[in-house]
């Protein structure tokens, strides 16, 4: 196949860059830093003032450490180190989004925190389309948060003997893990052997918390017991061997779960597709087919248009761990023409890491956003997961409709440059 660009593409180094001064520029320097933070990472009035005296930037201080932030700064003491203030991210509302779920059963106005123009408008349009079609049906399918301690042994024989002992200890492990938390439950333990490496997969139910700190503390308690009592001493042991998929896109959860697994669907009449999206179910299905192939060619894990947009904006607004978008945005979107000539649309997200207690959910702005949803506190996390899935479905419909109607670039130009 001929190349469109006559340049030699065999190298990933840009030939226009100047590397002639590499040796001098890249040498290490050992002089003392010109600026330092306070030694203590904790949040106190005195430590914050000391940090700003080092930063010495009054204009920045006015934006980051305004009077409201100063008044409420102690609310952040369990969520941040070396605190200097807060960042204000614009928040918009999308909706109404009608969700017909096992746990979420109402019309929601969804707060989304983002600085990307056209994003909230897109989710607003998709939400209104779903609501006009009777809403999105959403079902929470499974729950579980994993931590995967890993052990290395001299040989496979030692690894096998270790596993033979481990499988007799499950009841003890469960008791130790659950003694560290009033909410977490050890749901399952599985074993993965790779040569002389052993990975133990601990899967927890975490109640209404996202639960990552919870499972880390619980698993660490079990790890300490293992190291103190195992008859086969490992050469090395680590709290997590990277089999959990924590905060990274991974394929294994596509068939299982990490966090909350939710699916959402809707049958949308062709006339509503024309009214709201200015296209047809047939064209949207064709778009889905060609982009599925494109995703496979690029090695994408799962197939979706832009779950990350919805989840990042929702997570930031509602006090979730934003880094979990890396795994939460893995999932499958399907768009098909049903037997009536209408559009069938579904999304399945196996890695929704959401909670309605703990973490950042109790911070002032984030709690306010959860309160707007009516989803702050105990007993609400399953509903939040179903809302998140329905929101992703709304976004998939809107962006695919924009591409099919030729409006994608125009919308961004209009809203970002107006």
Question: Would you write up a description of this structure?
Answer:
There is one protein chain. By secondary structure, this protein is an alpha+beta fold. It has two domains: 91-140 and 262-416, 3-hydroxy-3-methylglutaryl-coenzyme A Reductase, Chain A, domain 2 (Alpha-Beta Complex), CATH 3.90.770.10; 149-238, Alpha-Beta Plaits. It is 40% helix and 20% strand. The protein contains 15 helices and ten strands. Strands 1, 2, 3, 4, 5, 6, 7, 8, 9 and 10 form a ten-stranded mixed beta sheet that branches. Helix 5 packs across helix 14 and helix 7 crosses helix 8. The model has no long low-confidence stretch (mean pLDDT 93).
Summarize the main sheet.
10 strands, mixed
The computed structural class is alpha+beta
- Number of domains as seen in the coordinates: 2
H and E order:
HHHHEEHEEHHEEHEEHHHHEEHHH
CATH superfamily of the largest domain: 3-hydroxy-3-methylglutaryl-coenzyme A Reductase, Chain A, domain 2
**What is the typical, i.e. mean, pLDDT?**
93
What kind of oligomer do you see?
single chain
């Amino acid at each position: 196949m001929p190349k469109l660009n006559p340049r030699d593409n065999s190298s990933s180094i840009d030939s226009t860059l100047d590397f002639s001064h590499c040796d001098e520029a890249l040498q290490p320097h050992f002089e003392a830093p010109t600026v330092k933070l306070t030694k203590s990472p904790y949040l106190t009035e005195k430590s914050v003032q000391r940090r700003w005296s080092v930063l010495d930037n009054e204009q920045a201080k006015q934006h980051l450490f305004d009077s409201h932030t100063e008044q409420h700064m102690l609310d952040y003491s369990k969520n941040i180190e070396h605190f200097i203030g807060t960042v204000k991210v614009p928040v918009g509302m999308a909706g109404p989004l009608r969700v017909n779920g096992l746990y979420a059963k109402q019309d929601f106005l969804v707060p989304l925190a983002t600085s990307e123009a056209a994003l909230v408008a897109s989710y607003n349009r998709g939400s209104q389309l779903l609501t006009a079609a009777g809403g999105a049906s959403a079902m929470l399918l499974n729950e579980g948060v994993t931590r995967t301690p890993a052990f290395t042994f001299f040989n496979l024989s030692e690894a096998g003997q270790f596993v033979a002992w481990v499988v007799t200890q499950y009841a003890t492990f469960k008791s130790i893990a659950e003694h560290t938390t009033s909410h977490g439950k050890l749901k399952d333990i599985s074993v993965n052997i790779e040569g002389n490496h052993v990975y133990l997969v601990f899967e927890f139910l975490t109640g209404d918390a996202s639960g990552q700190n919870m499972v880390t503390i619980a698993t660490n308690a079990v790890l300490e017991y293992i190291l103190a009592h195992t008859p086969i001493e490992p050469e090395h042991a680590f709290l997590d061997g990277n089999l959990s998929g924590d905060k990274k896109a991974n394929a294994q959860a596509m068939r299982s779960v990490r966090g909350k697994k939710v699916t959402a669907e809707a049958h949308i009449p062709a006339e509503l597709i024309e009214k709201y999206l200015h296209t047809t179910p047939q064209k949207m299905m064709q778009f889905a087919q060609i982009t599925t192939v494109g995703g496979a060619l690029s090695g994408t894990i799962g197939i979706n248009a832009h779950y990350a947009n919805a989840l990042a904006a929702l997570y930031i607004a509602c006090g979730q761990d934003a880094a979990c978008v890396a795994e939460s945005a893995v999932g499958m979107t399907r768009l098909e023409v049903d037997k009536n000539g209408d559009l069938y649309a579904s999304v399945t997200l196996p890695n929704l890491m959401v909670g309605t207690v703990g973490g950042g959910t109790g911070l002032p702005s984030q709690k306010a956003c959860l309160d707007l949803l009516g989803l702050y506190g105990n007993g609400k996390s399953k509903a939040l997961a179903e809302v998140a899935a329905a929101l992703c479905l709304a976004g998939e419909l809107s962006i695919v409709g924009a591409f099919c109607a030729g409006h994608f670039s125009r919308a961004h130009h209009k809203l970002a440059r107006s």
